[in-house]
């Protein structure tokens, strides 16, 4: 199966690298700077109980969307703000299946509007990937890929199975996407902390911030009668209750819910580091917008949007847990 990955960022490179290492015919399409880093090969890693697991690959590389013309499957992994542009660029270049593997909840709809006549499926990557060095990407948390079920995915299912890449086909993708969004509310908190995920989540005040953002989001989603898929070992409501627990109690439960290694950090923190616009409007911003539609307010997530936008403009991005918690409580 010929697979094009449109958006050679952290997720695109890691997923494309795993597929290519498993023998799939993969082309990575990205910015010249990123593609130049991959000329000598791509290395992807993940943390295993016995140490890092490593795969190397040399997928085809391209900087132009025309490289997707012959692809039977296009995985779209660009930032959410670039989805509309990606759809317009893909139009007229092939007829293959398109899968959105992006944060947020509306990207597949945007792609469908730009690509009438093509099958476009919603997807979700349930784990964190970080750039660690040129041509090297590391998966730092547990989770799997989930995609809207469709018969045309059968060759891709085989490619994932061959690459030993966990994939689950779902019939409830809106619930999955909203569930992932609730989890991803930590992206802003992690970015504003300037710390690795493990260190941030070891601080009770940062966890209080996340619990407050998640509880507010879950209340808004409940008012909207939007179902939420359980993506971790515990339902989202339970996770939000566990987060503010004392450190000793949280650690005992958290290790059974999800695994996070010391290298992991949010993609939003990477955006700060590289001077890119973040996806906060497609995470916290979705909760704020939905609340407004319902005639409600979402002050915690509104404040996080404000703080992230200030940080994008050069403002503070090294809050302590106590400082951030004080901002949100105010």
Summarize the structure in words.
This protein has about 325 residues and is of the alpha/beta class. The protein folds into 2 domains: about 1-170, Rossmann fold; about 175-330, N-(1-d-carboxylethyl)-l-norvaline Dehydrogenase, domain 2, CATH 1.10.1040.10. About 45% of the residues lie in helices and about 20% in strands. It has 15 helices and 12 strands. The strands form 2 sheets. The chain has an 8-stranded mixed β-sheet, with helices on both faces. The relative contact order is 0.12.
| CATH class assignment of the largest domain | Alpha Beta
Stretches with pLDDT under 50, minimum 5 residues: none
CATH topology type of the largest domain: Rossmann fold
Q: Please state the structural category.
A: alpha/beta
Helical fraction: 40-55%
Question: Could you tell me how far the N terminus lies from the C terminus, measured between alpha carbons in angstroms?
Answer: 54 Å
Give the overall form.
globular
CATH architecture of the largest domain: 3-Layer(aba) Sandwich
Element-by-element helix/strand order: EHEHEEEEHEHEEEEHEHHHHHHHHHH
Number of H/I helices: 15
**Domain unit count:** 2
DSSP, total strands: 12
Mean pLDDT: 94
**Widest β-sheet, arrangement of strands:** 5-2-1-6-7-8-11-12
CATH superfamily of the largest domain: NAD(P)-binding Rossmann-like Domain
Radius of gyration, in angstroms, nearest whole number: 19 Å
The biggest sheet, with number of strands, parallel, antiparallel or mixed sense and barrel status, is:
8 strands, mixed
């Amino acid at each position: 199966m010929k697979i094009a990955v449109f958006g050679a960022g952290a997720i695109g490179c890691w997923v494309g690298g795993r597929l290519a290492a498993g023998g799939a015919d993969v082309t990575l399409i990205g910015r010249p700077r990123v593609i130049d880093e991959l000329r000598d090969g791509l290395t992807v890693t993940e943390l295993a109980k016995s140490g890092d697991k490593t795969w190397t690959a040399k997928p085809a590389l391209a900087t132009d969307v025309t490289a997707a013309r012959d692809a039977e499957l296009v995985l779209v992994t660009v930032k959410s703000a670039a989805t509309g542009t990606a759809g317009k660029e893909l139009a007229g270049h092939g007829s293959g299946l398109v899968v959105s593997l992006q944060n947020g909840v509306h990207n597949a709809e945007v792609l469908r509007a730009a690509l009438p006549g093509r099958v476009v499926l919603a997807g979700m990557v349930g784990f964190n990937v970080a750039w660690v060095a040129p041509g090297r990407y590391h998966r730092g948390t547990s989770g799997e890929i989930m995609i809207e079920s469709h018969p045309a995915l059968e060759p891709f299912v085989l490619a994932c199975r061959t690459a030993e890449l966990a994939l689950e086909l779902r019939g409830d993708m809106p619930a999955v996407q909203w569930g992932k969004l609730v989890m991803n509310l930590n992206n802003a908190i992690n970015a504003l902390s300037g710390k690795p995920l493990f260190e941030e989540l070891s601080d009770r005040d940062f966890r209080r911030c996340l619990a407050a953002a998640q509880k507010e989001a879950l209340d808004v989603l409940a008012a909207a009668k939007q179902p939420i898929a359980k993506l971790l070992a515990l339902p989202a409501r339970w996770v939000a209750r566990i987060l503010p627990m004392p450190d000793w109690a949280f650690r005992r439960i958290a290790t059974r819910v999800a695994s996070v290694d010391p290298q992991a950090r949010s993609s939003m923190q990477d955006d700060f580091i590289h001077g890119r616009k973040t996806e906060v409007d497609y995470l916290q911003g979705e909760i704020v917008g939905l609340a407004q539609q319902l005639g409600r307010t979402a002050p915690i997530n509104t404040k996080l949007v404000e703080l992230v936008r200030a940080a994008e403009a050069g403002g503070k991005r090294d809050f302590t847990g106590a400082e951030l918690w004080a901002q949100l409580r105010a």
